[in-house]
Design goal:
By secondary structure, this protein is mostly helical. It contains 5 helices and no strands.
Length: about 220
């Protein structure tokens, strides 16, 4: 028949195997979540970098086009004031300028729409990253709870694995009242020490007795 200690040993070995499996599973989950979150963060960072460079280039191109258009408008304004060109030439130049203005407006609208799409894509990436971080935090909470359960399991195993001999000894101590016996003996010793005369008292008694003896001896000598 298996003893309590042998059962505890088997339980401890099984608990150790369960712990190894649990830690391995948790490690794999953590690695997967970490990789997913890292990839999502890298995608978001790369997207932001590419979007920033793209928008900077678009702004620079737009500024160059606007500067060129501004120069054409200034030149046309001077020509109209000087009257050097006839109305047909001025009209043609004005149409070209207006066409360029319309093109710049369309280009600006296109850049704005493209920027909005980039922002939406970035927001979606951010939401995905937040969701993965939330999942990671939940998994960390689960791991914390699981480790606490394992700690409690080992505490129970240690208590259950207490040797039977120790249990028997503790039982005998309790049954025989050994602790009470020691306490009673110590109490009696304390009382005995309290009732016994101190060294100073004994010395005083001895000196008094010697003095009485001396007096009696002196009286006897005088009578003789």
């Amino acid at each position: 028949m298996a003893t309590r200690s042998s059962r505890a040993k088997r339980s401890a070995k099984q608990a150790h195997k369960d712990l190894e499996h649990a830690l391995y599973d948790m490690k794999k989950v953590m690695e997967r979540l970490h990789q997913d979150a890292s990839k999502a963060f890298e995608r978001r960072a790369d997207h932001l970098t590419a979007s920033a460079l793209k928008h900077i280039q678009q702004v620079e191109d737009g500024e160059e086009g606007l500067v060129a258009l501004q120069k054409r408008i200034s030149r046309l304004s001077k020509e109209m004031e000087s009257g050097q060109n006839d109305r047909s030439m001025v009209a043609a130049a004005v149409q070209d300028v207006l066409a360029d203005v319309s093109h710049q407006e369309e280009e600006h609208d296109r850049i704005k729409r493209d920027s909005m799409r980039e922002q939406d894509a970035g927001s979606n990436m951010t939401q995905i990253l937040k969701a993965q971080i939330t999942e990671l935090l939940k998994e960390l909470e689960y791991i914390e709870e699981r480790l606490y359960e394992i700690d409690q399991q080992y505490c129970r195993l240690v208590d259950m694995g207490r040797p039977e001999a120790l249990t028997d000894i503790l039982g005998n101590v309790s049954e025989l009242g050994l602790r009470e016996l020691v306490e009673e003996y110590e109490h009696e010793q304390n009382l005995s020490n309290a009732d016994s005369p101190s060294e100073e008292q004994l010395k005083g008694q001895l000196e008094s007795a010697l003095a009485e003896i001396d007096e009696e001896t002196s009286g006897d000598d005088g009578s003789n």
